[in-house]
Every structure is written in C-alpha cells, then in structure tokens.
C-alpha cells in the first residue's frame, strides 16, 4: 500500500513538474518582453541575421521601386545595414511590430550611393515583414498565468516528492525517478536551445533558418542557468539513490539480533525403568 501511494505521488510530481517547467521556459523565452531587445542585438551582430535582413531590404526596395536594378537594390540594402536606425527598428519589431518601417533608412542609403536614386526610393511604403511574431503576440497576454503556473506547479511537485519520501518503504526508487526526470527534462532543453539551432544552421535552410537558430540560441540564455541547475540536481539525486539503495540492501540482509539466538535443546528424557 505504501509503495503504491509513493508511486502515485511521484507520478503527480513529474507530471506537475513538467507543466511547471514548460510554463517557466515559455515565460523566460518567447513571452519575456525584455528579451526581444537582446535577441534583436544578436540577430544584428550575426552574419546570417545581417544576410537575412539584407535580402529582405533588397526585396523591399525592388518592390517599392521596380525601376531600381536588382544589384543596385542589394547595394542600397547593404548600406542600410550600418544605419543605427535599422537597429532601433529591429528592436521595435522584436517588441511587437509586425513589420520594419524602413523607408527613411533606405531612402538615405540610396541617396548616399547616388543622389539620383533618392527620387526613385520613397521614404514611405517600405516595410519588411518580421517572421515569428504570431507566437510572441499570442503568449504575451498570458504572462501572469504562466508565472502562476510555474510557481504553483513547483510547489505541488515538491510537496508530492516529500509525500513520496515519507510514505515509501524504500526511498532510493523515489530519488532515482525524480533524478531521472530532472536529467531528461534538462536534456530536452539542451535539444531545443543547443542542438536544434545547430541543426537549423547545418541544414542550410536559408537566411531565415539561420536567423531562427540565432534567435533560439539567444532566447535560451534566460533558461540556460535553471536548466543547468536541474541537470546537476538530477545527477546528484541519481548518485544519492545508488548510495541509499546500497544502504537499504545492507539493512535488509542484516539478520536481526533475535534471529541469531538458537533455541535451547529439549532436555533428554531418562527412562528410569530400564
């Protein structure tokens, strides 16, 4: 009975803990309003990010001014990359805008290359769409529920683990299961924020694929520390479970003091009648 109760408590702990971890990761990645600025800086400082923006800017120039040759549009886009206003526009888009309004930036870049191009490139109507905004827009209003979810989930999971340790006839299996969950959960975070970005870059999915890898890597900065703590904690619990299992096995094999007392031999009956 105690073993069954402990198993149920551990299952509740791992399930609720998984939901709490998911809420925590979402809260500190795509739903974090302070992180887009850092992500924007990472994109602007990366080669693939600059390449993706250059391509998007060239397309915007060619669309708004069809008379401008494609090579010239690429030159204008390359010149606009170094404009500080571009960084400000990217940060604004990362914080909520669906498009980069870059008409003045591209107009001035064209004028810097050739004054005659300034008349061909308008200051308005030049916008670059920003991919990936749907998820951030969807998750932004639920920041408070995410915060409540991971805090309450953590409390319930820890309580369930404590109950399992109290009622379990042997505590080593509880530590082993909780430690395994910690290691596996941390490994999932490594896959999403380390291996997946590497795969996106290695797969040559185009400029936006490489940019997505930069975004994932930068977004993972907010959860790298907690995931590392979770991984180390899981390893410690697994090692502790092995040591505790050895102690429990030794205690189970040790005979009781009463068992070592041999029963007294029955007195021999003497037949006095020959």
From TrEMBL:
This is Uncharacterized protein. Keywords: Membrane, Transmembrane, Transmembrane helix. The chain crosses the membrane at residues 149-168, 180-203, 223-247. It comes from Petropleomorpha daqingensis.
